Amino acid sequence: MKLSRRSVLKAGVSAGCVAGGTVGGFRTANAGMFLPFTFPRNVHVQFGSYVNWSQEINIPLIKEFKPTSVDQLVSVINWAAKNGYRVRPRGSRHNWSPINVNPNDSVTGNVLVADMTALTAFSVNTSGATASITAQPGIMMDDFLTKAEQYGLGLVHCPAPGDLSLGGALAINGHGTAIPAKGERLPAGGTYGSLSNLILALKAIVWDDSSQAYVVKTFTRDQPEIAPFLTHIGRAFIVEVTLQMTQNFRMRCQSLVNVSADELFAAPGSSGRTIAALLDQCGRVETIQFPFTSNPWLKIWTVAPTKPPTSRQVTGPFNYPFSDLLPLNLTNIIGAVDRGSYALTPLLGATAYGVVTAGLALTNSADIWVKRAGWFCTTGHKELHPKSASQRPFRGR
């Protein structure tokens, strides 16, 4: 049966007939895709692929929109609630788990992905006893920490990647636990524990019974209702957060590749350079264990107001280029393992360990002295999306 244009309009839907056209209040990139005409007219939906940073999740086609205001986002969420759709937030897709978006959420399904990266408002309040920053979730951690540093503010610990969104970091209670070393005293405004400990208040989109609609509601730290939003793993829409901040301070990072895993991970009370002993010493430890190797890449961070004599002062973030842009011989092995040559895994681990050992020496990065705020001192490098065979990030990160 051939339908006239009038009958299609009466049915309340519009089929995208021309690739790249604007139909029914949304922009379509593929023929045959459609949304009801009731979809908010000021919001453009694009059809594209969803690929996470390390490429384990690859959805060829998915419906996505990019709200430029909170009001736009609320309007889409309310439309979705009335029309049998689900809306999921995304930042820079720096995730491994398909919790908020999964391969079944194809373009033919009823999932809309909200690209939150246009919501980047940022403001600083230094008038109170504790300084705070209020920001929207789409701002990248690189930008957030760089702006904070301009006000002399920082965090006790923070995620390593600069291209991770603030919303993404908050969704997973972004990483590091920042426990104190023995005798260490917190700077004003600082807090130990994970990133959620810094949240003073947030705004979230929630259901309102009185209006029978989704609305923006503010939650403060002293309200029990805030708890589910502190680590929501991508299943809530946080549109603004206020974090308490501390004054910037300097730290020393030492990298060691000569401590065996047996010594490092020995039971508390054992002799030697154990995790327990190092945490007592500095409170901040990171290890990267390469498969089938004996010695991890160990980084220890200590508060250092003045430059240690043996340290090299660095003037910016991401001081381990050898772990960001890997040599071709290593990426070739990674690719082969990905394609099923699992017997090469011991060679992969040994090669990666060799790249780190040589890289620390060649870049003089085994002992560096850094400014704290925007320089990603928890793990210290920026992870990049692959651009070529010789520019793959190390997926074991």
From TrEMBL:
Domain FAD-binding PCMH-type: 57-248
InterPro entries: Cholesterol_OX_subst-bd, Cytok_DH_C_sf, FAD-bd_PCMH, FAD-bd_PCMH-like_sf, FAD-bd_PCMH_sub1, FAD-bd_PCMH_sub2, FAD-linked_Oxase-like_C, FAD_lactone_oxidase-like
Keywords per UniProt: FAD, Flavoprotein
Record-given protein name: FAD-binding protein
Organism, scientific name: Acetobacter sicerae
